[in-house]
Every structure is written in structure tokens, then in C-alpha cells.
Amino acid sequence: MKIITGKKSRPRRIILYGPHGIGKSTWAASATKPIFLSTEDGLDDIGCDRTPLIEDLGTFGTYLLELGSDTSGYRTVVVDSVDWLERLVWSQVAKENNKKSIDEIPYYRGYQLAIKHWDDILLKLAGLRIRKSLSVVLVAHARSAKVEPPDGEAYNRYEPDLHKTVAPLLQEWADEVLFCGYKVHQVSKGEGFDQRHIAIGGERTCYTSEKPTHLAKRRIDMPDEIPLVWADYAGYVRASYATHDKPDGNINGVVVGGSSKPKTETPDNG
After folding, report:
1. What residue spans of the chain are helical by DSSP H?
2. Using omega within 30 degrees of 0 as the cis cutoff, is the peptide bond preceding 81 cis?
3. Is 142 helix (H, G, I), strand (E, B) or coil?
4. pLDDT by residue (tens digit) across 70-113?
5. What is the pLDDT of residue 196?
6. Which domain holds residue 107?
7. Assigned domain for 5 exists
8. Of the candidates 59, 140, 227, 234, which lies 20 to 30 Å from 77 by C-alpha distance?
9. Is residue 262 predicted with pLDDT exceeding 70?
10. CATH number of the structural domain spanning residue 213
11. Tell me, what DSSP letter sits at residue 89?
12. What angle do CA 100, 121, 141 make, to 5 degrees?
């Protein structure tokens, strides 16, 4: 019987989601040698290598296959965004069933048929991760979703804006599901019945563990909140594998060289 012990450093699988304009794409663009698979517009103002706008699932699959033989030295593949990729999956399913829309497929079967395409996408991404040592970042937008626990009152929380049939699949696949939002600072004005709280600004924060307000998860040790800066996240990954790294301290697809301590910098919108 073959037994594996200890940690093994692997390129990370990350879902980063949050509201529009908070800096998700900028965060991913700071990763180690990223290549963006562009399924929506919005990268023109960010200095990064990217594909032309991908408008069908076949083209997306072709790019994944081409990355398997690419010699440009990319270390991170970024899908921006995965919720727009979902629309390409739906269009493909509708086309395969001679329908104009996935909703025209009866008995809700269209969304079940879409799972096979997601399985194929994840299989291709796994190949890039294992054979090419590429980290994978799936950028997604956030939505407010209702949660109805069996032992309590219903409440709303932020989740990736994905269909309920595919969201659990991607969340289980990911090593980290990171929610980025604004940590709002407030001041009190007035007294008694006239007292009110006013927001005076906020800082962009990355939440790494699940709370009633948002879905998140992590598989390595890091604080519940970290700055929305790639170097900070990569620093915690490096620290997690510090005693298991190569002699030069590199972790494939995460960060090359530099200190294992997180750094601080301010991301731009994106």
C-alpha cells in the first residue's frame, strides 16, 4: 500500500467573487504571469495578457487546449468571468437541443445537461494545473441569495452569481472561495433619537472564511480577513508550505521569489 504523508504544494484553485468595480480583475492580474480567458469586456484598462472576447464555448475550449502546449511561461490562468462563461455553457446546451434558450428545454433538464460541460471544463483546467503547473483563478460577480436553514430563520448572504446546479460543484472544486467587499467605517452623529450612523468610507477586504453575511472557504491557515492584494494571499500560501517547498522557496503557479510575509499595496478598480 502506498502512503502519502505531509503537505504537497500544488497550484491553487481559487474562486474570487465580489461586487462590480472592487478590483477583482486587478487582484488576479497581480498573480504570477497570468493569462486571462476573457468571457466579458472590462480588461482594456488593466495591463495583462488576455484573449480576445470569447463568444462561444467551443472557442473557450480551444484556448484551454492551446494553453496545454503553450511555451510562453504562463503560471496562472484566469477566467474572467465565470458567470459569463456560464452563459456560454447555456447557449451551447440550447444549441445542442435545437432550442433558442436553455429554459425552453422541458423538465429543467437543460441545467442538468450543462453539468457535463462543466465537468469537461474542470477536467481541462485540472490538466493545465497538473501538467503545466498553472494556478486557476475563476473571477465571479456576487449576488444576494436567500438562505433557509432547517433550524433557524431565513437570511440573505452574498454568494457567487452562479446557477444553483453548478455553484456547489465549483465551490467544492476550489481550494479557496474568497469574497471581496468593502469594510465600511461609520461615525455617529447627533444624540438620543436624533443619533444616526454615517458611512465615511471603507477599505477593500478579502474574506476567507464563511460567515452569515457571505459564503467563503479556505484550505490553508490565514486570517478571516486579509487585504484585497494578491501578494498577501500568496504570502499565506507560501507560509503554509514553507517547510515543504523546493530549495528556492518557490511554489508553482503562486508566487516566485520574494518574502513569504504578505505585502501591502492598493489595488485599482477592475
Report:
1. 24-29, 57-67, 82-96, 109-131, 167-173, 230-240
2. yes
3. strand
4. 889 999 999 999 999 999 999 999 999 999 999 999 999 999 99
5. 64
6. 13-244
7. no
8. 227
9. no
10. 3.40.50
11. H
12. 75
